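Hi V.,

You were right to ask for the full record rather than a summary. Here it is.
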Amino acid sequence: MAQVILSPAALNDLQAIFDYIAKDSELYAAKVVDKILHRITVLETHIRVGKIVSEFQTEAIREIPEGNYRIIYRIENETEISVARIYHRARLLKEL
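Predicted structure:
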């Protein structure tokens, strides 16, 4: 079982997602963030479940989708995963 760590940037992304959606509905914003966090738990047991991120073309940087979001993560080793960013699909991925 792998340990999944959310980077400071990923935590900021989650807060930004919540803040943006909460302008219309705090309840819905909380549900979206909860779904994203639940999806991330899959990485604890299936570290290679995501596809390779096309912008980086490296085996260690992968993504899993959740709704309109891309959860970008890095396989540090077989027991540690780092969630680097959480992006809306409409945004361009520039850097981790």
